[in-house]
TrEMBL record:
<dbReference type="InterPro" id="IPR007253">
    <property type="entry name" value="Cell_wall-bd_2"/>
</dbReference>
<protein>
    <submittedName>
        <fullName>Cell wall-binding protein</fullName>
    </submittedName>
</protein>
<dbReference type="Pfam" id="PF04122">
    <property type="entry name" value="CW_binding_2"/>
</dbReference>
<feature type="signal peptide">
    <location>
        <begin position="1"/>
        <end position="32"/>
    </location>
</feature>
<dbReference type="InterPro" id="IPR051922">
    <property type="entry name" value="Bact_Sporulation_Assoc"/>
</dbReference>
<keyword id="KW-0732">Signal</keyword>
Length: 978
């Protein structure tokens, strides 16, 4: 576990300053670098080798920006023995390197630490000049070397460059072995004292000179006479006016314990444990121990030596940190160390505002609250029993040390599903909840929980809103809720997948989650999914066979739902009248849906709210819920789907307010929606209600779309055609409006036996109860029961196009509508073999609010004066009437009304035409009026009539010329054959 990090405590700074003032000497200032207040419990700092251990100790002890880093060889110990005390005094770590290389773990840690300067300990035989040069890349300060002819000279030089004269204490240890010096490095570093190396029977000259300079108030000899002789001890008296004290023991373990007893009071925050068989781990840990004001105690390979055990019992540290892996300090020793931590109570009840540590068996007998500024540490092997109606709420920090095992939390629901109130509730922070067995409890982990892994939940309800990863957990008979976090951290697929067992209700995962990176939902975990997922810029993959119950997905990133024909992805609702969100997918990014099945639900299966998805593909899927796309910017591909067209309640209305609408499309380009009746076409199953596709979109320029009755659908709404629209024989439009714009064209190609039908939406002759369609929004402004309309806007551009795009309407029936065809400017429409029944206005060609002369100047105004590009509707062999009766009924003005022109004087105000033009038009008009009988009787004559309704003004250098628009051409009108 990563240790919590804080700045050097004021207590440590005060202690060092107090020693200085009391003894009247100067000591190095306490470091400004941050060091941790370590986490209670037994924890271990280990790594693949001595170098990685060295890096991890520094990583878990110091914040970036340390004042200094000491570099020593990891092969031998002498250079670093005195350096460990200096590092502790100056607030920096000791990092180990190879003689000719910087290990990768050390390089990474140097990058993180960003030291102000670096000091290399020892000569080039220990740390090469090349390594020293490489170290310059990790600091903006100096890289210096403290060397010497031998280990004693190096020891003296380190002291000379680190400690001022007049120190309170100088520690002296043998340079022939490492244990004594390493045990002394921690208290020496804490008190700002040097560690100097001597020979067993003599004091090297360089060390003697440094002692002379230091003039310490006291000298402490580390180790027995076999390490530092009595003769040397006697000689040391000449370098101090104070005492020369020896701290010794039967062996290196006893020395470490005795030195701790001399240096530390009971209740230390931390004790560091290292093997006494080798030097690297203790060497790296000594500066960290100095920073924490705790000892370094040595243990052997199999046990905790008696003297060390006795010292631990005296100290009762809050935390024990093991330095090195299990090969250095075995797991058995780690387990034994737990007993020396501060005792935890066995029965708890009520609030606490002080740090507590639990081990053994702890019974929670009432509502117990761990305060917000308080830590609860749970050690390996702890069992927490939560009694009926009791609750443990952790408002502060929950700490489970790394490597902890055998922790169990048992609640009153162990024999069945738990009660609904929370039993184990973490309000505050927890860096790691790993390997805990929860049984019969209702658990809540809030956003401060950093990770939850390798745990087991049985007969327990879990609400997890943690910020960190959750993986490889096992849930048995356990409802799970995940809130406000990245689903990528809770895998439901792959080797780290969480697993679920039990009934469907017990296996249902309630999601209130996001996808920020990439997540996969899979049936392999055993989970069913419910709730809501937001895909924010990441990717959500849904594997074949995945089941959703009452789920909604907001796909702002990438959503990939890929079932198979035999194993589709299934969306279900618990009830057709449910107020939840079964099977609802809101679009906003790249979405692919293949082989999915959407059961009947209250809300649309797939929809969007003007979020402009980049792409959408829906294929080979089955819908019992409506498909609704609103404001879709793009061309969705919707093919080979089946729509059951079931009756769905309106979620904004009452239970009887129904809208049987399997598909509602408001998209930029409709042409990707395949409705041609071919092998890729969508199909609509029979139901008691008409299968209606409601359009509100465009067929983009250069795109083409075909509508067919073979799909089983009836088409409604607004289709704007800038490309090409084809309607096959038998296609039915109800309350639809087709608007042809720009270079668009339509081909309504019925047959004598299967005409294309345009009809009012209230027309109940197509097969459904018209009362079901009340209040259905057909197109903009919710205009209902009025139009079966084709609207030709023609070319929008005013550049000089010398062509028109013809549209063809054949064997088509318009009936029961106020309007049928509106003819815009410069359009060409060919209407043949068709019928208009109960249509008030057949062809409407209204005057525009603007006239061409009011348009901005355009290139065609400078061309030779040409007639306008008029719109022409050619109407042949077409009936106008009611139930087959002629529409004109002997009244010539009926034809004028049907054309929307009005009498000739209204169409052309006085002065708009010259007398010659007016005479010509009146002649044509009279011909129309006199040929009414021919139209009425269906004469086979070849008469052709042009009916004008607007003027075009052409400006020339010599004056202004006006031409009439010539919009409508009517040839002989016969009864169609259908």
């Amino acid at each position: 576990m990563t240790l919590a990090v804080m700045h050097v405590s004021a207590r440590v700074i005060w202690m060092v300053a107090a020693i200085s003032l009391a003894l009247g000497v100067a000591v190095p200032a306490a470091s400004a670098a941050a060091v941790p207040d370590v986490t209670p419990g037994v924890t271990r700092i280990s790594g693949a080798d001595r170098y990685e251990v060295s890096a991890r100790v520094a990583q878990e002890t110091y914040d970036p920006g340390v004042p200094v880093v000491f570099i020593a060889t990891g092969v031998t110990f002498p250079d670093a023995l005195s350096g460990a005390a200096a590092a502790g005094a100056e607030g920096g770590p000791v990092l180990l390197v190879k003689q000719s290389a910087i290990p990768a773990s050390i390089a990474t840690e140097l990058n993180r630490l960003d030291p102000e300067r670096i000091v290399v300990l020892g000569g080039t035989n220990s740390v090469s000049a090349s390594v020293q040069a490489q170290l310059a890349a990790y600091t903006d300060g100096d890289v210096t070397r403290i060397g010497g002819a031998n280990r004693y000279d190096v020891s003296a030089a380190i002291s000379a460059t680190t400690f001022p004269a007049g120190v309170a204490t100088a520690y002296v240890a043998t340079g022939s072995s490492f244990p004594d010096a390493l045990s002394g490095a921690a208290p020496a570093g804490s008190s700002g004292a040097p560690v100097l190396l001597v020979k067993t029977t003599s004091i090297p000259a360089s060390v003697a000179a440094e002692l002379e300079r230091l003039a310490p108030s006291d000298i402490v000899v580390l180790g027995g006479t076999a390490s530092v002789s009595t003769g040397v001890e006697t000689q040391l008296a000449s370098y101090t006016d104070g005492s020369v004290e020896r701290v010794a023991g039967a062996n290196r373990y006893e020395v470490s314990a005795a030195l701790s007893a001399e240096s530390y009071a009971p209740g230390v925050p931390v004790a560091y444990i290292a093997t006494g068989k080798n030097f690297p781990d203790a060497l790296s840990g000594a500066p960290a121990a100095a920073a924490q004001d705790g000892p370094v105690l040595l243990v052997n390979q199999d046990t905790i030596p008696a003297g060390v055990a006795q010292e631990l019992l005296r100290l009762r540290p809050a935390t024990i940190v093991i330095l090195g892996g299990s090969a250095s300090v075995p797991s058995k020793v780690e387990s034994d160390l737990v007993r020396y931590l501060r005792n935890a109570p066995s029965d708890v009840c009520g609030p606490t505002e002080s740090d507590v540590m639990w081990s053994g068996t702890v019974t929670v007998s009432c509502f117990t609250f761990i305060g917000q500024q308080t830590k609860l540490t749970i050690l390996s092997g702890t069992t927490i029993l939560i009694e009926e109606d009791a609750r443990l709420t952790i408002g502060g920090e929950l700490v489970i040390p790394d490597g902890s095992s055998g922790i169990r939390v048992i609640g009153p629901g162990a024999d069945g599903l738990p009660q609904y109130h929370y039993h184990f509730d973490v309000w505050g922070r927890a860096e790691n909840i790993q390997g805990v067995a929860f049984t019969g409890v209702t658990v809540q982990f809030n956003s401060g929980v950093q990770s939850l892994s390798e745990s087991t939940f049985e007969d327990s309800a879990v609400n997890y809103a943690g910020d960190g990863p959750m993986y490889s957990n096992r849930f048995v008979g356990t409802p799970l809720r995940l809130r406000h976090w990245d689903l990528a951290n809770a895998p439901f697929d792959g080797p780290e997948a969480n697993s679920f067992a039990g009934t469907e209700a017990e296996r249902t995962v309630m999601l209130y989650a996001t996808v920020l990176t990439e997540a996969t939902l899979s049936p392999a975990s055993g989970a069913l999914f419910s709730g809501h997922v937001d895909v924010f810029g990441g990717t959500l993959n849904v594997s074949p066979g995945t089941q959703f119950v009452d789920v909604s997905i907001k796909a702002w990133g990438t959503l990939s739902i890929l079932g198979t024909e035999d194993d589709p992805v299934v969306f279900e609702g618990t009830s057709s009248n449910s107020s939840s969100l079964p099977g609802q997918i809101e679009l906003g990014g790249d979405v692919t849906i293949r082989h999915a099945r959407f059961g009947q639900s209250t809300l649309p299966a797939v929809y969007n709210s003007s979020m402009s998805p980049a792409s959408l593909t829906i294929s080979d899927s089955y819908f019992e819920a409506p498909l609704v796309l609103r404001g879709f910017a793009g061309r969705p591909v919707i093919e080979r789907n089946t729509f059951a067209s079931v009756l769905a309640p309106d979620p904004q209305g009452g239970p009887n307010d129904t809208k049987p609408l399997p598909m509602q499309l408001q998209v930029d380009d409709l042409s990707g929606v395949v409705l041609d009746g071919g092998e890729n076409s969508n199909v609509f199953e029979e139901s008691p209600f008409t299968q209606v596709v409601n359009f509100n979109g465009e067929i983009a320029a250069e795109s083409s779309m075909t509508l067919s009755p073979d799909t089983g659908a009836v088409y409604a709404g607004l289709i704007q055609v800038a490309g090409t629209l084809h309607a096959q024989p038998g296609t039915v439009f109800k309350g639809a409006r087709i608007r042809v714009v720009e270079l668009g064209s339509i081909d309504l190609a019925g047959s004598s036996s299967k005409p294309v039908v345009f009809t009012d939406y209230a027309d109940d002759s197509i097969g459904e109860d018209s009362s079901r369609w009340d209040e259905f929004p057909v197109w903009e402004d919710n205009v209902l029961n009025e139009r079966a309309w084709v609207d030709f806007d023609g070319l929008r551009s005013w550049s000089p196009h010398l062509f028109t795009v013809p549209s063809r309407i054949s064997f088509t029936e318009f009936r029961n509508a106020a309007y049928a065809i509106e003819l815009g400017q410069r359009s060409q429409v060919d209407i043949r073999d068709s019928r208009f029944t109960n249509v008030q206005t057949v062809v409407e060609a209204p005057l525009r609010e603007w006239q061409p002369e009011s348009m901005p100047e355009s290139p065609w105004q400078h061309l030779p004066c040409l007639p306008p590009f008029s719109s022409v509707a050619t109407i042949e062999r077409t009936w106008f009437g009611d139930s087959g009766k002629a529409a004109i009924d002997g009244d010539p003005e009926a034809l004028v009304l049907a054309l929307g022109t009005g009498p000739l004087p209204q169409a052309y105000p006085d002065g708009a035409l010259s007398s010659v033009q007016r005479a010509a038009l009146e002649e044509q008009w009279n011909a129309i009026m006199s040929s009414t009988a021919a139209l009425e009787s269906g004469s086979s004559g070849q008469s052709s009539y042009l009916v004008p309704w607007d003027t075009y003004t052409c400006h020339t250098p010599s004056g202004t010329i006006q031409f009439p628009w010539l919009p409508v051409r009517i040839t002989e009108t016969l009864a169609p054959s259908f």
